[in-house]
Amino acid sequence: MKTQRPTPLLKVSEISLSYAGRGKQPFEAVRQVSFDLLPGEILGLVGESGAGKSTVASAVLRLQPLTSGKISFRGKDIASARSADSRDLRRRIQAVFQDPFAALSPRRTVRQSLLEPLDHFRMGNRDRRDAMIAKTIESVGLDTTLLERLPNELSGGQRQRVALARALVCEPDLVVADEPVSSLDVPTQKRITDLILELRESLGIAFLFISHDIGVVRRLADHMAVMYAGRIVETGPTEELLRHPAHPYTQALLQAIPVADPAQPAPRALDGEAPAVLTPASGCVFHTRCSEAFAACREREPAEVPVTDEHGTTSRRHRTRCHLWNR
Amino acid sequence: MKNPVLSVRDLSVFIGDQAVVDRVSFDLYAGEVLALVGESGCGKTKTAEAIMGLLAGDAKNRRTGSIRLGEQELMSMSEAEMRRIRGREISMVFQEPMTALDPVFSNGEQLAQQFRRHRGQSRRQARDSAAEMLTHVGIQDPERIMRSYPHQLSGGLRQRLIVAMAMACRPQVLIADEPTTALDVTTQAQVLGQMTKLGREIGTAILLITHDLGVVAQYGDRALIMRRGKLLENQPVKDLFAKPENPYTGSLIAAARELST
Fold it and tell me: Pick from B205, B154, B163, B206: which is nearest to B182 by CA?
């Protein structure tokens, strides 16, 4: 019997996106990507540069049109939203990017930056707005005295907290965070990831958290999805996926990470080149670099199948696109 | 133990009145990988620039102490003398490979030029040396890479090309400043793996500057920990992780482990 999953907040179904090449064939950056995100859930989207992570983010933020597929938010197709609905969507889905300095206007104080979305979305009256701003800035661990500062008077970590506060002040349901801690020092990364966990706990906000850093995703995400060459090659509950990675690419990715312990085995390099510079091969996108590839891998693209763990238990939520699991 | 190839004693670098590098001393031996570790702003890059004689502006004249490369004292050398040292005896690899390559020359021309300029080889000899060097950094099709231009390469290939250029003259010392920070992990493993292997083969000592303790643990032989311009620790990597002497080192290791898989 199927267990009943709650209705997803965000449902991404078989989306593909292409970028037009100059006089060349269009480049398919994302191909048939699907995932669900529940209210208050954190999904970590990992993969290397060029895998298509940010393209997925821009699709969810409606910054790029889909070539095919569908994205629903709270049960409604986001592509068909018009005027009032569209404004409501923009409030409910907020974004935080990698470089907080680029995201904040250098001539606006923190208060002005936080006031603007409230103005735009016509939220609260003057007194209420002051209270909302104060509450939000405190929720990201900053003092209200920083409200009158300009971005260049803040540290990198503080700026990223302000960028997060500006997303939160609109009371969103979902924050799309694209590499939000990648430009920060390790101790600051740790503090920001702790903060995201707290905010999820206290406000029930869902996060689509994009990162190339699996360590950060492990700390944060309930579920993760691994992208390679525009496809999601593996997805599942974070701990389960990392303990028992099924796809050869996920395994290679994990083996390449240098562990901060000299007693651990040396990182293993993945041979060959990332496919972004190559013309797309037929069959599985990873077969050109996969040590376990066999005939079928070169001929047809693998379908998504459930993964069976070392005890022979098949997990409903841990899935991979690999012929090894479908023999 | 044999004599160090590079010996730094009481090196300080001043910007204004502040010592951004404060009485730092260490030795570097042939064929080893010495990791220089710390958070941004700790003075690790300034230490490297002081060794190379590449400090900018006022700081250029405000370094004290001694830097010996074998029998030569680098501190008292003129810019002209340093130019003969750089690239030939001490070379450097930086974080961003694109800025280190010239976009208008093919990769092959740029690499071959190292052999022509520093080793006085003929055009044909230099081409052959360049192709051979590329295979040493794990590039399987050197001919294709040599015909193409820097923008046509991926980040990992570019950085391996840079490593090939830096190692072309079999320098005594290679200073690599965050060479893989801009790269993905699978690419990082290729670049660092090839670089450290090549260093051991030809006996080049590598000063590997990084903030990543995973990189230190996996690729370093010894490690220096820097904080606020001061050297806190100088230990073999095994001992550093087993029993860090300084509490700051302990906290760095703990943070790295918490954020790793």
Answer: B154
B236: which 2 tokens?
């073999």
Burial of A143 per CB tally in 10 Å (0-12, 13-18, 19+): exposed
> Residue with structure tokens 């103005």?
A119
Quote the CA–CA distance of A196 and B134 in Å, as a whole number: 45
A239 touches chain B (CB under 8 A): no
Residue B17, classified by CB atoms within 10 Å of its CB into exposed (0-12), middle (13-18) or buried (19+), is exposed
Instruction: Give the residue numbers in B contacting A (CB under 8 Å), as ranges.
Output: 39-40, 154-157, 184-190, 192-193, 211-219, 237-238, 241, 252-253, 255-261
**Residues from chain A contacting residue B254 (CB–CB below 8 Å):** none
* Residues within 8 A of B (CB atoms), A 246-275 only: 252-254, 256-264, 266-270, 273-274
3-state helix, strand, coil in chain A (%, to 5): 35, 25, 40
Q: Which residues of A touch B237 (CB under 8 A)?
A: 262
Tokens 């208060």 belong to A111
Please give the share of chain A, as a percent, with pLDDT higher than 90: 71
Evaluate whether A238 touches A44 at the Cβ level (below 8 Å): yes
Contact B189 A260 (CB under 8 A): no
N residues, chain A: 327
- Band (pLDDT 50/70/90 cuts) for residue A83 is confident
pTM of the predicted model as reported, rounded to 2 decimal places: 0.86
Spell out a b/e string for A166-200, using b for 16 or more CB atoms within 10 Å of the CB, else e: bbbbbebbbbbbbbbbebbbbebbbebbebbeebb
Cα B173 from Cα B86, distance rounded (Å) = 10
Which residues in chain B have Cβ-Cβ distances shorter than 8 Å to A260? 213-214, 216-217, 241, 253, 256-257, 260
Please tell me which of the candidates A190, A213, A256 has its beta carbon nearest to residue B186. A256
Residues 6 or more apart whose Cβ sits within 8 Å of residue B15: B58, B59, B62
- Side-chain half-sphere exposure of A95, counting CA atoms within 13 A: 18
Q: Which residue of A has its CA nearest to B221?
A: A262
Which chain A residues are within 8 Å of B157, Cβ to Cβ?
Answer: 273
Give B20 or A187, the one with higher predicted confidence: B20
| A-chain residues near B95 (CB < 8 A) | none
Encode pLDDT of A8-45 as tens digits: 999 999 999 998 866 667 788 899 999 999 999 999 99
